[in-house]
Amino acid sequence: xxxxxxxxxxxxxxxxxxxxxxxxxxxxxxxxxxxxxxxxxxxxxxxxxxxxxxxxxxxxxxxxxxxxxxxxxxxxxxxxxxxxxxxxxxxxxxxxxxxxxxxxxxxxxxxxxxxxxxxxxxxxxxxxxxxxxxxxxxxxxxxxxxxxxxxxxxxxxxxxxxxxxxxxxxxxxxxxxxxxxxxxxxxxxxxxxxxxxxxxxxxxxxxxxxxxxxxxxxxxxxxxxxxxxxxxxxxxxxxxxxxxxxxxxxxxxxxxxxxxxxxxxxxxxxxxxx
Length: 274
Known about the structure:
This protein is of the alpha/beta class and 274 residues long. The protein has helices at 33-42, 57-69, 87-94, 118-129, 143-152, 174-180, 211-221, 241-251, 257-271; strands at residues 3-7, 47-51, 73-78, 100-105, 133-136, 158-160, 189-193, 226-228. The protein is built from 9 helices and 8 strands.
């Protein structure tokens, strides 16, 4: 299967989705499975991973409900309060939903030290007991703390979303590259080649802008620990789904067929236990 490992659905609400500012007016509306299914079919994508865009149980329930109705939604990455005192009970309840495979917190909005607090670490350690994955939504400034987190939990599967959001628009990469390379030997950490379009110049990006970053990610994680994600509909701020997919398809076109199958499907299947 070809899998889009990172996308979102929402019923737009200016309060709930306050992060969608006026510069992102193109996505200030509803985006639901019917909107994506045709796009995936047109691009020979067999399924997707729906990822939370709001930190609430309501959001997780919403995505679970959508996944139950649509076969092409292969997995859900929801939200749960990992710092809650009853986290074990919450995770046990979550386990009843077959397509709920993992969780995410918007760590990019927190101080780096947030993920190293004792109650958060207790929650992370509980994930392994229930075979849940964890998506790391972070900025380059969080990578040092994230490295400590994943080293402390070597049996827990993590994936870094959006290659940790380096500033591609300004072509800043030295500090990001130095930090991302520290994950090279940590087999429990994967990386999503997603969200890169919106870190570039929205109106004047070029495919070559992404190559140095992709080079660094491939060097660090190899082809067995990276996965394609469109970040639809957020990508629409800067590019169509087809344009987003083509950036990565073109970059990896010289790789072997087996490597391309891993990057565009097999690795997501392995990571999320599809």
